[in-house]
Amino acid sequence: MLPPAPSHRILIISDAWQPQVNGVVRTLTTLVGELKDMGHEVDVIGPNRFRTIPCPTYPDIALSLLPGRRLIRMIEAFRPDALHIATEGPLGLAARRWARRTGFAFTTAFHTRFAEYVKARTGIPVRPIYAWMRRFHGAGAGTMVATASLRDELAQRGFRNIRSWSRGVDLALFKPEPREDFGLPRPIFIHVGRIAVEKNIAAFLDLDLPGSKVVVGGGPMLAKFQRDYKDVHFTGPKHGEALARAYAGADVFVFPSLTDTFGLVILESLACGTPVAAYPVTGPKDVLAGADGLIGAVDTDLRSAALKALHADRQACRRHAETYSWRACAETFLSHLVPLMAGQEGIVGDP
């Protein structure tokens, strides 16, 4: 843990950063804002500062090209009190190598089921990838995870020093009113997120449900799904107030992913008063647990979950979302950080 101080210099290394739009980027962007509001100096080094190449099979993601030397200069120029490596990509690997070589301590986070994503796209088994990820994170002083079920799963896979770090939701933006009028037959079942193979969206699109289906978002599978599912209303990406209205205007949010580690969209939907239907997997089963009232349903039969969620209490959905705070998320993150150097009282380079 960092020593008590009015402010710290915190450096985050992430292969997922603006202008990308995904849960990792939204988490880190909001986290940085909260930490700065708390008086800390924070910088994020992402692919936007390097030459990049498109990620194979997913060109929307940019991978930094040979970032090592330039990244080291950036780290040393910032002179951080604490280093957090958020991802396992080229930047994360380069930062880890530097920290290991210099003996500096750092923390990591398990944001993405990288092994399952690779298997979905290439067929490579998850076991050797998890072995590699275990070594990657094992070099750090602690690995932050978003849910209790993920913590238990990673512990069973041999990960050590796992630290709980939940998420928050913008309750001022995501609210029950105003609501989008889609002009479609009700009930309206909505999905919001990146339209990619690992999100298992076809499981939602194939459901026999009354009313209408709406999909909000963009991604590599959008054009194919638009061709294959003529009865589904695809809006493309929405942001800010338009996104909040879309959530609020639906009757049920259907979250078919089997691989997410949390699912920020679940909290956003609940904050808008819209109940959630999902499989009983990490993320949904954690977020929906312990609510005061029916706020959705998890079931191995996704259709049954969607139909049950129609009877949820929209006010209970909002109340449950209000228990999640981005400030609490930032405070927990800060509590897990470690000094860059053992016994450190100042910053890098101080005597």
Question: How are the elements arranged and paired?
Answer:
Layout: E1 9-13, H1 23-37, E2 41-45, E3 52-55, E4 58-64, H2 68-78, E5 82-85, H3 90-102, E6 107-109, H4 114-122, H5 126-138, E7 143-145, H6 148-156, E8 162-164, E9 188-192, H7 202-205, E10 212-216, H8 222-228, E11 233-236, H9 240-248, E12 252-255, H10 264-271, E13 276-278, H11 284-287, E14 296-298, H12 302-309, H13 314-321, H14 326-336
Parallel strand pairs: 1-2, 1-5, 5-6, 6-7, 7-8, 9-10, 9-12, 10-11, 12-13, 13-14
Antiparallel strand pairs: 3-4
Helix pairs in contact: 1-14, 4-5, 10-13
Query: Number of helical segments?
Result: 14
Number of strands: 14
Number of domains: 2
The CATH architecture of the largest domain? 3-Layer(aba) Sandwich
Helix-and-strand structural type: alpha/beta
Radius of gyration: 21 Å
Determine the fraction of residues in helical runs and give it as a percent range.
25-40%
Name the beta content range: 15-25%
Low-confidence stretches: 343-351
Distance between the termini: 20 Å
H-E order:
EHEEEHEHEHHEHEEHEHEHEHEHEHHH
Mean pLDDT: 93
- How are the strands of the largest sheet arranged? 2-1-5-6-7-8
Main sheet properties = 6 strands, parallel
